[in-house]
Each structure stands twice: as structure tokens, then as C-alpha cells.
UniProtKB/TrEMBL annotation:
It is an enzyme of class 1 (oxidoreductase). This is NADH:ubiquinone reductase (non-electrogenic). Belongs to the NADH dehydrogenase family. It comes from the Bacteria. It catalyses: a quinone + NADH + H(+) = a quinol + NAD(+). Keywords: FAD, Flavoprotein, NAD, Oxidoreductase. Residues 10-330 form the FAD/NAD(P)-binding domain. Pfam families: Pyr_redox_2. PANTHER family: EXTERNAL NADH-UBIQUINONE OXIDOREDUCTASE 1, MITOCHONDRIAL-RELATED (PTHR43706:SF47), NADH DEHYDROGENASE (PTHR43706). GO terms for molecular function: NADH dehydrogenase (quinone) (non-electrogenic) activity. It comes from Salinimicrobium catena. Its EC number is 1.6.5.9.
Length: 346
């Protein structure tokens, strides 16, 4: 891995998302050797992935080179690597480019798309957690519009112009809004031989309102905004299957013929192999952490961001898997690692 031995304690941060960057920026100023690992050499600003998928932004607008974070540090390093296993009894991690020891290990591996065991959706649907995936959605949308232009049969053209999104959380809501903007403004200008009124956008949600984690007021406003844009919203509806042509739901009378089905209905943590099973909440795939972000059962292993499940009275199921808690946890852990170095209480 070509990382020099240092007289400073070594902190290894796995993941260059909001949490990992928030922590790294603060620790790089201290007398520590900080090593940041990520499978990509750039940070993705995930809240704007939907803009990339609908051609509103180019990928470089939401990607930030991770090496820029460490380049001015005397004892800070970035390595492009994927962590494969943790061996906590040896303070060691195994990665795709070699082994690495640590004094403190911070897991900020984020989340991954959760299909809840539905293989048909995973095989035939689209989802959006990375820039390449957002570009795939962009390509599919444009390809289907182009194909619709040359398809004379209305029955064959309809699935090409039918866009179905499952999951009315922030990603699903923003994506539907952006696709509606494409229909309302881009199609009339760039696809003049298409009738925009043929394009339908459907948002499916299993619960009784859009944006379920947010306030009732936010839900009402979002619902109203989407309907004004022409999005058709289907609440209390669960997607059961997508075979590449038809989306079936728990409502026998409701199905959709579509060539564009986007799954935005769930995420789960992305844990690394090696820690005790008791440290991981299996269904959520997140590490149980205390108020100081220490992983349950370990003193020098921490988890922050989406991968961390910190249960409090206000958040018995853990904090929401969004950027703000991740950034705040990174800040707080930086303070606590400094306290550990001074042998002070957390």
C-alpha cells in the first residue's frame, strides 16, 4: 500500500462520503496519520444525482476529487481500495490492494440500494446510488425518447413514454419532478415530433403519503407540487414485480407497461465483513453504535453516517440516512478522537 510508518497514531477512515470527509478534514489538522480509503477517487454529492440522471447537470458538477482533501497534509494519504475484511483482534483490515493496520478504525461505508429480496426488480429495474448509475438512467430516458419518435404504433410507443418510479422518499420525489420538467420544457423544444401529453410519470409509494420521513406539511406541499407538474401519485401501493415490460403491484387493477422503471424505495447499510454479528442490525445492515459512535463491543472501531445506527429517545430506529446527520457525526467524532488522544473522557 506504500504508506510510511509514522510516529503518530494511525486513523483509517473507510469511505469518502459526507461522514468520512467531514471527519478527515478535521483530523488532518491534528498530530495523526490519517488514511482515507474509498472504492472511487472522488466524492459523489448524492443529493444531486437526480439532476445528472435527467441531464440537468454533468457528472463533474457533483464529483469532488478525494486527493484534494489530503494533498496539503504531511501525514495524510488517500488510497483507491475496497475494504474486504476487518480483523479486529489484530487491528488490521484486508483490502483489494493489501493489508493495513490501524490504531483507530472509522467505518463510513454509507448505504446501498435495498431490493428487499425482490430479484426481478434487481434484474430488470434501474436504481441510482452512483454517478455511473445516474448516467445509465439518463441514457435510458434519452434512448426511449428517441425510440418513441420512430415508433408509429401507439401501443408500442406508450411503454417508451411511460416513466414509473417506486418510492416517494426524497430521491423518488426529486426524480419525478425532474422528469416532469424534461417533459414540460425539454421535449417540446428538442423532440418537436413527440407529443408531450403522451408522456406519463407515475410515482408509487407503499405508505399513505409522499416523503414519509418528513413532516405532514412537507408531504402535503410535495404532493401538491408533483400533481401540478403532472405526476400521477399512487399511495398505499406496493410494487411486487417488474419483468422488464410490466410493473405489477399489490392492487390487481393497477399495473404499468413501461420501458423505464426506477427503484428508489429503500436503502440498507453496507457493512464490512469481520465484526461480531451482534454489532450489526441484520435487516438494516447498519452497525449498532453508542452516543460516541463506537461500534458495539469495540473501543477503537467507530461507525458514522448511513452505516451507523445510533438509537436515541427521539430516534429509536436511528438517525435518518441523509447528509446532515452524517456530517454532524463526523464533526463530533473528530472532537472525541482528539479527547482520546489526550486520554480524556468522551
Amino acid at each position: 500500500m506504500n504508506i510510511p510508518i509514522s510516529e503518530n497514531p494511525r486513523v483509517v477512515i473507510v469511505g469518502g462520503g459526507f461522514a468520512g470527509i467531514s471527519l478527515a478534514k478535521r483530523l488532518l489538522k491534528e498530530k495523526l496519520q490519517v488514511i482515507l480509503l474509498d472504492r472511487n477517487n472522488y466524492h459523489t454529492f448524492q443529493p444531486l444525482l437526480y439532476q445528472v440522471s435527467t441531464s440537468g447537470l454533468e457528472p463533474d458538477s457533483i464529483a469532488y476529487p478525494l486527493r484534494k482533501i489530503t494533498r496539503h497534509s504531511k501525514d495524510g494519504y488517500f488510497r483507491l481500495a475496497e475494504v474486504e475484511k476487518i480483523i479486529p483482534e489484530e487491528n488490521l483490515i484486508k483490502t483489494s490492494i493489501g493489508d493495513l493496520t490501524y490504531d483507530y478504525l472509522v467505518l463510513a461505508t454509507g448505504s446501498k440500494t435495498n431490493f428487499f429480496g425482490n430479484e426481478s426488480i434487481e434484474e430488470h429495474g434501474m436504481w441510482m446510488k452512483t454517478i455511473p448509475q445516474a448516467l445509465n438512467i439518463r441514457s435510458l430516458i434519452l434512448e426511449n425518447l428517441e425510440q418513441a419518435v420512430i415508433t408509429e404504433d401507439p401501443e408500442k410507443r406508450k411503454p417508451l413514454l411511460n416513466f414509473v418510479v417506486a418510492g416517494a422518499g426524497p430521491t423518488g420525489v426529486e426524480l419525478c419532478g425532474a422528469i416532469a420538467e424534461v417533459r414540460n420544457h425539454i421535449v417540446p423544444r428538442d423532440f418537436r415530433d413527440l407529443d408531450p401529453t403522451e408522456i406519463e410519470i407515475h410515482l408509487i409509494e407503499g405508505l399513505d403519503r409522499v416523503l414519509p420521513p418528513m413532516s405532514n406539511k412537507a408531504s402535503r406541499e410535495a404532493h401538491k407540487f408533483l400533481e401540478e407538474l403532472g405526476v400521477k401519485i399512487h399511495l398505499n401501493t406496493m410494487v411486487q414485480e417488474y419483468d422488464g415490460e410490466t410493473v405489477t403491484t399489490n392492487n390487481e387493477e393497477l399495473s404499468f407497461k413501461t420501458a423505464t422503471f426506477i427503484w428508489a424505495a429503500g436503502v440498507a447499510g453496507a457493512p464490512v465483513e469481520g465484526l461480531n454479528a451482534s454489532a450489526v442490525v441484520e435487516k438494516a445492515g447498519r452497525y449498532k453504535v453508542n452516543l460516541f459512535n463506537q461500534v458495539e463491543g469495540y473501543e477503537n472501531i467507530f461507525a458514522i453516517g448511513d452505516i451507523a445506527l445510533m438509537q436515541t429517545e427521539d430516534y429509536p430506529k436511528g438517525y435518518p440516512m441523509v447528509a446532515q446527520p452524517a456530517i454532524q457525526q463526523g464533526k463530533n467524532l473528530a472532537r472525541n478522537i482528539k479527547r482520546l488522544l489526550k486520554k480524556e473522557k468522551l
